[in-house]
Write a structure and sequence with these properties.
The complex is a heterodimer of chains A (445) and B (749). With 445 residues, chain A is of the alpha+beta class. Chain A is 16% helix and 36% strand. Chain A contains five helices and 29 strands. In chain A, the strands form seven sheets. Chain A has a five-stranded antiparallel beta sheet. In chain A, strands 1-28-27-26 form a four-stranded antiparallel beta sheet, with no helix packed on it. In chain A, helix 1 runs parallel beside helix 3. Chain A is globular, with a radius of gyration of 27 Å. The termini of chain A are far apart. In chain A, 40% of the residues are buried. The two termini of chain B are 67 Å apart. Chain B is mainly α. A two-stranded parallel sheet of chain B has the order 1-4. In chain B, strands 2-3 form a two-stranded antiparallel sheet. Chain B is 66% helix and 2% strand. Classes of the chains: A alpha+beta (445), B mainly alpha (749). Chains A and B meet through helix 1, strand 17, helix 2 and strand 29 of A and helix 1, helix 7, helix 31 and helix 32 of B.
Chain lengths: 445, 749
Amino acid sequence: MKVKVIARNPDDYVRETKLDIQRVPRNYDPSLHPFEVSREYTRALNATKLERVFAKPFVASLDGHRDGVNCMAKHAKSLSTLLSGSCDGEVKVWNLSKHECVRTFQAHEGFVRGMVVRYCGASFFTVGDDKTIKQWKMESPGYGEEEEPINTILGKTVYTGLDHHQNDPVFATCGQQVDIWDEQRSSPIRSFTWGVDSFSSVHFNPVETELLASCASDRSIVLYDMRESTPLKKVIMTMRSNTLSWNPMEAYYFTCANEDYNLYTYDMRYLAKPIMVHMDHVSAVLDVDYAPTGKEFVSASFDKTIRIFAKDGGHSREVYHTKRMQHVICIKWSADNKYILSGSDEMNIRLWKANAAEKLGVLAPREREAANYSQKLKEKFQHHPQIRRIARHRHLPKTIYHQTKELRIMKEARRRKERNVRKHSKPGSVPVVSEKEKHVVTVVK
Amino acid sequence: MAKVSKKKASKKKTRSGGAEQSNEGHPDVVYDDEKEEDATDEDITVEDEDEHDERKRQKLLEAIGTLSGKRKKTLGERSEAAVHMSEFTVNAEGEGDKVDLSDLIGSIAKTPGLSGKSKKRLKNLEQSRKTIECPLSKQESERIRRDLAFQKVSKEVSHWKSVIRQNERAEQLVFPLNQEPSGPKPIERVVMGWKAQTPLEQEVFTLLSANKQPINDPILTPTEEASMKAMSLEEAKVRRAELQKVRALQSYYEAKARRQKKIKSKKYHKVLNKAKSKDFQKQFDEMVKRDPAAALEELNKMEMARMQERMSLKHQNSSKWARSKAIMAKYDEGARKAIQQQLEVNKDLTQKLVTSLNKEEEETMEEDGNADVVPDFVNDAEQGLDFSNPWMTGKLSQDCVEKETSNAVTIRAEENVAEEEEVEETEEEVLLREFDSRRKRRQAQEADVAVILMEEEEEEENKDASDKEEEELSEFTSLFKGIAEGCGEADTAAELEKELKIRCLEDEELLTQDKEAEEEEEATDKGPVVPQHPPATENGQKTGKSRKRRKGIELKQVLTKGAQVLQVPFAPTIEDAEDSEGKLDQRGLIKEAFAGDDIISDFLKEKRKQEDAGKPKVVDLTLPGWGEWGGGGLQPSCRKRKKFRRKMTPLPPRKDQHLPGVIISEKRSSSIRLHQVNALPFPFESPSVFENTIRSALGRTWNTERTVKKVTKPKVVTKLGAIIEPMTREELVKDKNRASAGSSSSVKS
């Protein structure tokens, strides 16, 4: 009698310990897997749905200010420290991991207009409506000591913005002109004016550290070089830019937040045309901050929402809002690329996740692999209509939803009108102006 | 307000535009002007004017003074100032007048030291009447300065282009950018960072320093450190690659040696041994020339081995085994061979090396070796093998064959000159034909009597022609015939076996066709084949093929008809009773379970239905009563019907036309459409590219672990809790280094 026995080596299927993963023998011959694409599609669909299920971006709210939060600053060396200044001149230092305020003091009379932490993280500067620049120690004063600035500079005019050099003891303020200060001196080492009366913000380039850019009230963005005695160039747009942010990984790109509901990314070498127009907000954009990876940026708007844009994406990938959050005035992306901080009119600072569905904390290797795989699946099938629909779906407050719709209709109407005008006029007399070109009035040398 | 601002802006634009043109066109011109300005600064007061007698007189006096003696110059100047200064108002004499160039140059004409060239140039300068342009306005000059600064900055910033592009293309970016390599730090660094803090430690250190012991305990000696530094990472990599290569080569050689060792062919080994011995001989000769001492040693070693062999007589036929073999050798070929081999070993071992020193001795020794105790018949057989029968050696020496064929040809030529065509044929052809005819005959016997008759008639003619040659080549051909027939027999045996197997298989699979039907089929299969008279082998193959085809289980037959033929008794099987019963049970169960299902025919019906549905139909568009009488019982006229009957254009052939087991639906399905991409997404340029990206699966169900890891690598990786600093200039330097390294390597390659 013939006895047929399948002989296998136990090493191939027996686990060494019960903690090991069961080995699953597989035959990868593609002819044996005729439905691989459809199976992966199903997985992608499920991954997309799960992402939406787990998308809970709101982490915490930090309350304690007695007026709207007007400005914030990230600590240069510590991830868990945040500074905020409010409209009543109060400055608070927060511990983010504990969600609590560690220090409060009255820094200025009137608004705290701007604040920035020195690159070493040992002190920080604030400017306020009382025409002063003050330098403060990062450590809170000991028991019985009074809160006093290390250094106070009395200026002639109101300062509206402030930024510190990346690695030199030099900072810049803006107000009626842009001033460059040495930390050791009480008068600016350099002042830039170019026929405008007020600037709203000034920012150092974090990569090419000698360059600056500022937004002026004459709807212009002006570029400076700290080493030169004159400004470099300015571009005038149709509406005023509120603030701007340099890309921390790409030296010549910056994005400005405009009053016309859009954000514009410029290449500083070619100012005649922004390289990208980022739309989606339905009211003026008040603040913008780049992610430290330079791949994305976040914007805060007067329409009570926060939006996250890819640096080369025309529309936002994410929108954050809560019922209670009012006009968002300032926004920061945390230095570890994980969180977003927003300060708003109704006196609260909110902590958000940068990726809404991301699991916080340390991931097990298998967990991480699974997350990577589902991420890739979502990317692979992102163009499929069902998946796109689910991935793009966001609930919006009613007002914003309707405003978006209204804006869309208006835009469509304008386009239709332009098309009709073009149709009924001499060919070539009404040129087609692209969306990018439309918003730049002129470039002044 | 907006309007006004716009106007302003436009104005500015135009102005700036104009400035642009003027400035951008000739940025150098500006500099030129400035230079000119500088150059002509000294001459700016030069204008036409009358001379004064007073001054002339002074000059004259000066000239006289210079003629007469020294140090008059200063005096002259002072005198001049004194002359022109009035007491009340400081009023120089020359005020309001302009100095002419000629005033300044006039004296030059007389000085001999000046070259003619410069004189000429001065003269030209005197004659030119151009006024220089006034300096640029502040705004203009600032604009120029701004422009220049901007150009400088943008040029500087553009250095980042390559870094940015590289980061954009990178498959994975890890932030923070310049992380310290993870893992343990070198011990030295840890040690260096450590300082004595407690009093005890400090005391120990003071003691150590007093005794001049190393305080910062150098873990590595300076030489070691140097060696560590000497081998950089790249060098180490290169070295590792080399080592890997060497190891791989070694393993190849080992594998080769093992393979060669395994080869059983004696001939191969004989050749190998011969080559080896030849090699050894050569080496030895060389050694004799180069290193006589070593050669002598080698020689001694061999001599020793020989002596041992001669003493022990291990390989001679004195052993028990050898004796028994010797007895058997008379009757058994194998035994004879074995003995011969052993003797050969003996011979090899006892052979003396051929050197010039002891050739004579060696010869005598050989004689001794030959005269051994082996029975005569063994040696006889060997000699017989060697010489008398060339076929027994195993190689068909070409010379022998040729010799024989030439003999045959000459003989034939003598015997019958008439068969000239045959003479022309080469011997090989004749032989081939021979074989062919034999094979044919055999085939015919097997296949059909009638055919045999016909073939034999043909064959007879051939035979007549070849008979004589056959006789002549009896010896040669008989040998091959034997082999060929052996083959034939084997063929037939194989066929028989195959048939048997098929039978068994058929029985096993319970193919329910009647044997008769099958045989009929066979007959029909054979029918067309036989009369064509193809070569036997081909025929055999064909039948074999047809059988093979039948051997495979035909789904259709099994499944469709299985249900109906349940009660057919099972054909005899070669399997064991238990086994078959078990199978029977299972099979029966399955049959019962699927008794009603006629899957295949259902499928076929379905497919036919689909095909019919897809066929173009004739559409009758006639409207009864339109243009003619209508009403009950009235048919539209034939003409009208013909006119309004429309035949639809035939559709393109179905895709599953040639796939019997498949239905490909070409209809658009709304449920699937919901999930399909309906437009080519943005970055893709052709549908095929997009489809390709979709087609490749990513999961670990379809890919190996490594592939999955590689494919699902995230684009951006950040470290938990680490601050990501902005990019620094070091990256630029790194990139430059990389680029330069790349270019240099490309140049090298």
